[in-house]
Amino acid sequence: MARSCSPNRARLPVIQPVNRRLAALLALVVAAAISAARLQAGVVELFEERELAFQVEGNESDVLRYRLFVPDRRGAAERLPLIVWLHGHGESGRDNAAQLKWLDWIFRDPSRRSQYQFYVLAPQWPKVGPTDSSPPSPDPASDRDMIEAVRRMIDRTVEEERVDDSRITVAGVSAGGNATWRLVSRFPTRFAGAAPMGSAAVNPSDIANLVQTPIWAFFSQDDPPELLSIIRLRTAEVTARGGTIMLTEPQGMGHDCWTEAFRDHAILEWLLRQRRGMRHWSVRPGGYSVPQMLRWLDTKWTWQQLTAQALVFAVPASLMAWMLLRKARGRSRPQPPGDDSPPVGATSPPQAPSQSG
Asked: Tens digits of per-residue pLDDT, 144-192?
């Protein structure tokens, strides 16, 4: 006999497939956020805290705090490159941590500290009053002060650490891209390369000072068209003056053009390859010279990277050697003994007429 369901018994809600998918998506979003937070926390722990006694106009403190990543040298004597990282508008402040946002694109695995054989200097623009000093509004006194402060941070790092003075580069995002343009134009012979991202704040009077530094600029096509036109014009002006510059225009991620720069264009590797005075090195990805490839092989690779690098050279070389060997064997193959028959398609020579008795 079938049991009847009591009308007073509460029924559990049935989870529909759509709700299940939404719940799964929400769980993935939460897991990704937690993973990103852990990665960012790991990046912050990699950096040492430093201070510079310097007065910025409008700043209530006479001390600027910054961060420095010092690679695991283990007593090595080799000098290493230095990347100066300039943050965006929203990371200004005094916590000496917010400016490290986006550096997880450089330090993809903070637990493997020894694989990062370069220095990273990350200053933080202080907040002066209700607004930040980092936006380009037009070159305030506090911004001029900060450009000078960054120069002093660089000089101190070169004096105190084993930095290769010929391999100092600078990169910045958004408002930090503005500061990148200014830093290079203010000190035109100081940097081996520059990567301003998300910034069109190039003063026309600074064009002459930009031609001595290889520059790879990124600017999103999703940004205002008038700004995109300006950065295209400034790039053409630098090229016309004999400078080495390239503009890449990502699309589809809003103002964020630096994610594609790191993910798809290997901007980190490009920065690390630059050396001041070696203008023959191309800024274009893919057009690598022999010295660059030899330098790659001389780098401290992980075994996975070394295997991939070896395959890049070994596979084409092996294929070419196999084709040449096969062709050589075909030419030297002897004709089988006793086979005097003419080749297929050949005609027999005419026979002389016989003479009778």
From this structure: 788 999 999 999 999 999 999 999 999 999 999 999 999 999 999 999 9
Cβ atoms of residues 241 and 185 within 8 Å: no
Q: Is residue 225 part of a domain?
A: yes
Q: Can you tell me the distance from the alpha carbon of 162 to that of 150, in angstroms, rounded to the nearest whole number?
A: 18
Comparing C-alpha atoms, which of 217, 201, 199, 197 is closest to residue 257? 197
Q: Tell me the CATH number at 37.
A: 3.40.50.1820
Strands (E), the chain: 47-53, 63-69, 80-86, 119-123, 127-128, 131-132, 163-173, 193-197, 215-218, 245-248
The answer to whether residue 237 sits within a structural domain is yes
Sheet of 119-123, strand order? 47-53, 63-69, 119-123, 80-86, 163-173, 193-197, 215-218, 245-248
Distance, CA of 180 to CA of 170 (rounded, Å) = 7
Alpha carbon distance 66, 51 (integer Å): 6
Q: Residue 184 has which token pair?
A: 């290079």
Domain count, the chain: 1
Domain that holds residue 169: 31-287
Please tell me the pTM assigned to this model. Answer: 0.66
**Residues, the chain, total?**
357
- d(C-alpha 53, C-alpha 276), whole Å: 29
Residue 47 inside a domain? The answer is yes
pLDDT tens-place string over residues 70-109: 998 765 778 999 999 999 988 988 899 999 998 998 998 8
Contact indicator for 185, 243 with CB cutoff of 8 Å = no
**278: closest CA among 167, 161, 156?**
167
Condensed to tens digits (0 to 9), the pLDDT of residues 251-295 reads 888 999 999 999 989 999 999 999 998 764 444 444 444 444 444
Per the CB < 8 A criterion, the answer to whether 134 and 176 are in contact is: yes
The helix/strand/coil state of 144 is helix
CA distance linking residue 194 with residue 215, whole number of Å: 5
Residue 343 inside a domain? The answer is no
Distance between CA 153 and CA 251 in Å, rounded?
A: 35
